[in-house]
Structures are given as structure tokens and as C-alpha cells.
Amino acid sequence: MLTAVAALLAVPADAQGGKTIKRKVAIGRFSNETQYGKGLFYDKENDPMRKQALDILSSKLASSGKFILLERDDLDVLVAEAGEGMSKIGADYIILGSITEFGRKAEGEQKVFSSTKTQTVEAGVSIRLVEASTGLIIYSDEAKGYAETTTKQTLGLGGSAGYDATLSDKAISAALSQLVENIINKCMDKPWKAYILSEDEGMYVVSGGASQGISAGDKFIVYKRGKTVTNPQTGLKIELPGKKVGEVTVAQTIGDTPETELSFCSYEGEAIAPADFANYYISDK
């Protein structure tokens, strides 16, 4: 059973004919740290720029075809609980972001027979990518995006330069585009992991399933967790590389949603006691 489940969740792309196992990603807090548009009755939860950035990032990640995006209404609370909360999110990675800069300006030029008006928007975005299993930030960066539009009139003919609300989207999108590729590379470069949940009639039940690209016949490596040590310089706990103990082969996948999907696997390797499941993990590398 273990073999089947692990295989569903972690078969390497090379080992499975170019197959990509999708990573589960939750987008957490995306805040607007600028003062733009914050009036007397400003509501942080309904900030339009915050929602713009969140929607744009979600769309870009989804279009890559490499992620399953999880929606969690309580994600901010879980993230605030640090180590304990991270393990309850059900995601491989958590993305935290903020709009750090935003500015809009309009410039015009008036000539004898013509006039031009240019609207320019500049947006700065900061992103942090957190590995849910450890709570460590594995990628952090920021970028700026620009967008502008120009209208020209000659002898009173031509377009009129009204307020262009789409420039905000374009500037934020331009900034996020510079970061998304790095987010994708960081997530996909790290080994995919799944965990043994239980044993049922000789089969091992593993988290993950069809929506991640796991299917019957996939094979994954089973590792015993390495020892955890503390770095005296940073105070952070670091898990040493695990030891390969066997292999799982996926027999069947079940579940209707990414959160409820499971894989049933067979297992070949060193004996694993049910009480020790937490000390093992399944990986595609």
C-alpha cells in the first residue's frame, strides 16, 4: 500500500515519462502596505489593490499547470500560529506577499495644434515563499512593474485621456511576472514529498492523488527522516537528509478534491511499524 500511495504522490518527472507532480500551494496574506486609496473608511479586508494582486498571482500560478491552489479562509490564522499552524494547512508551500509601492502620475504636453497626455503607474511587489513543513522562507524577492498609456489630440480630434483604471492591473501584473518564474523554479526544484497516513489491509495510505498527476503504477522512494539538529548561530532546527528504506507503488487513488485525495500503495523495503509512520516520508527524488 505504501508503495502505491507514495508513487502517486512523488514519482519523479524523469521516472514517469516527463510527468510533473503538482505542488499544493496556498496563497496567504497579500497586503497593501502603501497609502494609496486609504481614506477615512478604509477596509483592509476589502482593499481593491490587495484583491487585484491576489487574483493576478493566482491566475499566473494556475496557468503554469504545475500547482494546485488551495483556498483556506483560516490561512492567516494558521500562519500566525507559526510551526503548529503550518503543518495543518495541507499545502507544500505558502506564498506571502505585499504591495510595497504604488504611484500614479499624469503628464501632458500642449502644442499649437496638438496635445498629448500620458498616464503612468508604478507598482512594487514583495513576495516570500515559505516551505510549510519547516516554516522556513526558501525564497524572498521584490520587483517593480510599470504601465502607461498616451493619448493625443490634433486640432481637437483624437482620443480623450480619462482615468485609466486598467493601468493598476497592468503594473502589478508586470511586477509579479518577474517573480512568478522564480517561484515556480524554487517549488519544482525541491523534491516533492508525501506522507504515510495509515495502513489498511496490507496497503499503505498516502496523502495526494489524481489532481496532482498521480496515477496507478507510479513509483516513489520512501525515506526515513534524518536526525534534527540545531544550528547554534541561528537557533533554527535543521533536519538532516533522510535514509532511503524502500519504494512504494501506487495501486489506486481516491478522493474528490485535492484536500481529500488519497493513494493506496504497495511497499517493498525495510519494515515500517505503524507507530513510526511519522518518521518516514515519500519523495520523487
Report on the structure:
With 285 residues, the chain is an alpha+beta fold. It has 2 domains: 22-103 and 123-146 and 159-189, 3-Layer(aba) Sandwich (Rossmann fold); 193-283, Thrombin, subunit H (Beta Barrel), CATH 2.40.10.410. 21% of the residues lie in helices and 42% in strands. The chain is built from 5 helices and 15 strands. The chain has helices at 2-10, 48-63, 75-80, 82-86, 166-189; strands at residues 23-32, 67-70, 93-110, 114-131, 136-154, 157-158, 193-194, 196-200, 203-207, 219-224, 228-230, 237-239, 243-254, 262-269, 280-283. The strands form 3 sheets. A 7-stranded antiparallel beta sheet has the order 7-15-10-13-14-9-8. Strands 2-1-3-4-5-6 form a 6-stranded mixed beta sheet. Helix 2 packs across helix 5 (166-189). It is elongated. It starts with a helix and ends with a strand.
Give a concise summary.
This protein is of the alpha+beta class. The protein has helices spanning 2-10, 48-63, 75-80, 82-86, 166-189; strands at residues 23-32, 67-70, 93-110, 114-131, 136-154, 157-158, 193-194, 196-200, 203-207, 219-224, 228-230, 237-239, 243-254, 262-269, 280-283.
CATH H-tier superfamily of the largest domain = TolB, N-terminal domain
Q: How much helix, percentage-wise, in residues? A: 10-25%
Number of strands: 15
Strand order of the largest sheet: 7-15-10-13-14-9-8
Query: Helices and strands, in N-to-C order?
Result: HEHEHHEEEEHEEEEEEEEE
Structural class: alpha+beta
Specify the CATH class of the largest domain: Alpha Beta
